[in-house]
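Q: Two folds, back to back.
A: First:
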Amino acid sequence: MNSINYIYIARASSSFIKNIFFSFFAIWLIYEGILTSAQTAIVVSIAILMSRSAIVFAKVSSQFKQKNVLRFNMVIATFSYLLIFLLAKWKVGALIYWAIIAFVIGSNVAVTALSLLSLVAITQTAQHHQKGFAMANIALNIGAGFGPLIGSLVLKFQPDYFPLVPIIFSIITIIITNKFPSEPAPPKIKRKKPTQRKINKAFASLLLINFLTFIGYAQMYDVFPLAAKPYISLHLIGLLFFFSAIIVVVLQLSVLKLCESLGNRRSLVYGNALLLLGVIFFFFIRAKLLIFYILAISLCTLSELFYTPLYRALSVKLYKYDNPVMALAWLSFFAGLGEATATYIGINLVSYHHEGYSFAFAIAAVAIASLLCVFTFRAE
């Protein structure tokens, strides 16, 4: 097997860590009765924001081989989830402890993703980046599909042990790193005067578009499970995410070829338009009709096939300073800012049975993102 493929396998196994736990983090905290809904919103939003905050750690991370960064991160993940288990077992209700642990596990997800995506970039040539990121997205969604399914089953039968399951995949990821391809030595950091750097308007526009898109993205992965819980079972929610993963695995490479023929601008407009339509179907959660859930999940998932690989490839291309780690870190940070904002607002609105306002907010954000794509990227 090509050694690069082991990066994708590690991307899948590490994705299990996040998607087993994060998809049901809010539901589990409320089930345990440790925190209030408002406190849960704070804790989960911190975890989500930090899960995209790779920019905070990018400068330090880029000074080491990414394989070693990943191994260290998996050790931290193991101890973190063990600590979550103990906090719940001892019924520790102090918000500060949960905020700190949310900060740690979120940061852990961010650095893990940054290391693996950086390995995709630095072990392949520029012309293979978009396909490489597409393959990474397929791997990510294997975890995003099976993870919530596993999480829902554990929550149903053994909820007390829910935080321990991610540890299994931390250990698996450490083992897989032994098969990674060799990577170049980390570049030496050269100090530059601030005046030497100019604002890259195209890159800044991409970050803003990414921020707005992920307000919509959050509705599927972070707001929908909590909003749908009174109407459908956790097991069905897990199956819907599993269905989402199948869509990604089957269609990602076909959509990639389509994007190559459409060009950047049309691909991003179509991707955001599909996301907008998907969020519209979330308005029908209370109807308890499976077809609406399937349509919402399918459209949101299809949208991701368009924008995820392209946003990443464009970030590496548009960032002026030839540093894929920093480019991907900035992209991830703005995605997290959008996702965390939408999640905090969404969880609070769901607690008052006003989830419709969360979906309306997302629709407005994604519509603006679509318009910005039209004006930012040239027709090809």
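A: Second:
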Amino acid sequence: MGPKGALRTIPLVVALACVALVRAQGPDPEYHVVQAVVEGLRSPGQCAQVDTYLRAQADVIVARTDYNTRNVMIQVPHFSSFTEEHLHDLFQSLGLEIRCYRRVPLNSSLYKPLDPRTCSETPAGMDQ
């Protein structure tokens, strides 16, 4: 391919990149985001240990526990049977509790942490 041919392919490459970018920003029905407030976190180091533990679980693609917001965010496939009870059991085995569980399809909107001060649910398992 000569210089003219290369120049002709640049618009195609740019167009394909734009399509890929737009598609990447749209909803991804293949994945869900699980969120919850975590009670009992003592340090950022403990959050790192929780993350390592969660990432080793079946179906967990991404896991992030934040000490400052007391939030956990986990990405799982849409078909995963990852439930509130399962998450409660995982955290209980670490001596922690969760509340304000929510699971929604992954989308392009910014991640918004749950506010532990306004989340009124009791920790999962505490109301049984």
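Q: And?
A: Residues 11-23, 123-128 have pLDDT under 50 and may be disordered.
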